[in-house]
Amino acid sequence: MSTLYNNFSRFMAANVQSDSRCVLALSGGIDSRVLLHLFARYVRENGCPAVVVHVHHGLSPSADQWVDRCRQWCIEEALPFQVEYVVVDKTGESLEAAARRVRYQALQRYIGEGDRLLTGQHRDDQLETFLLALKRGSGPKGLSCMAESMPFGRGRLLRPLLTVSRADIEVYATSFQLTWVEDESNQDTRFDRNFIRHDVVPLLVSRWPDFPQAVQRSAELCASQEALLNELLQDLYLAALQTNHSLSVHHLLTCRESARAQILRMWLHQLGHPMPSRIQLSNIDHQVLQARADANPKLRFGEHEIRRFDGFLFCIPVYPDISDWQCQIKLNQSVELPDGLGTLTLTETSSDAGLNRQCLAEPLRITFNPEGLMASPLGRKGRHKLKKLFQEYRIPSWQRRRIPILMSGKHVVAVANLFVDKHFSGSDCDLIWDTMAEFMSESGQEHRK
């Protein structure tokens, strides 16, 4: 079994810098248990900074016992141990996908600049992933499956056991008399991966013993083809990409449909989203990208939406509706805005672009609902609907109910960081919205070209 450690040690030497901290994801199953044993020896011999993290999903009745056993193993190996408790939202995606998503979100909090996250996937996992991708009809990106090393947060994710078979891992665990936990859900063939593991792979391997190695080669070839394709399209992608992470519709429409699809994949991957299906890409192309010029198209993509505005394509979160939210505000008072939109402060000031005391004649309130409201911005003639003013200010449609509006009775006093109504302009007080980060990053005002 020294061969397995020697291979592990060489992999670590090639992928871990001397000052990199290593974070090991320990589920407690046999794969991560063997990884912990190898890792502990490597840390003793090389002295690299290390921490072990167990993510408690709460999906198994044995979940608390798994925490205790993982903690005990780390005590025995003299490794720091942390537990992350997460809640898995079981709606909108498969339980497997939801658990994986929250698990990696929790682990990412431990990864600083240059750190390495170690996970225990092996060659048989790669085979299962390949067959699942094949079932979905994936292209080269999906069929390239899992990489031994890939960017993750501010560091990298490493899979040191990816070329090792499950059988070799079991032999190692037995030879060192290691114990591990068994997740009862791993036997449930209602889950696609378990069905492939228990019913499909044994049949394939009994007929073709070298099938796992052949799949590994195919995955590597697909990864190589995907990398080459991205390299060839890199200039087109960079030409379309804007500083606010949107894409130029004009640049996209000058490309072939197949090239557009790959650029969209590159874009979504860069933003950290899962790869879209062929149907999703087709819908983005035809329903959003090529919608009529005066349309306000959108397409749901997981917990995000693909939107088009002012000649650019955006991928934005699905925001909660806060248009019914209201709150009073007084002079020299700060109000916490909903949904992480910062604070709004009404403060005394000598600013020439502020408000007069007339606005204080009635109680002031904050709203986010522009429906039916009109205003007379300072420096303009007449009264205009806020909807029209937002269009003129080039505010994306999805942001128009996320900008604080200051009201005095039924009158618009100001729209935060956009304008003051001329009837309330003065130098007695000022309205300060402390953050425009979200608003500016998605507005049409920061395009590179």
**Would you state the CATH class of the largest domain?**
Alpha Beta
Helix content: 25-40%
Q: Biggest β-sheet: count, sense, barrel?
A: 6 strands, mixed
Query: CATH homologous superfamily of the largest domain, by name?
Result: HUPs
What is the CATH topology classification name of the largest domain? Rossmann fold
Taking strands numbered 1, 2, ... along the chain, how are they ordered across the largest sheet?
Answer: 3-2-1-4-6-5
Give the CATH architecture of the largest domain: 3-Layer(aba) Sandwich
Helix/strand/pairing class, anyone? alpha+beta
Number of strands: 22
- Summed up, the helix count is 14
GO molecular function, one term: tRNA(Ile)-lysidine synthase activity
Subcellular location: Cytoplasm
Family: Belongs to the tRNA(Ile)-lysidine synthase family.
Protein name: tRNA(Ile)-lysidine synthase
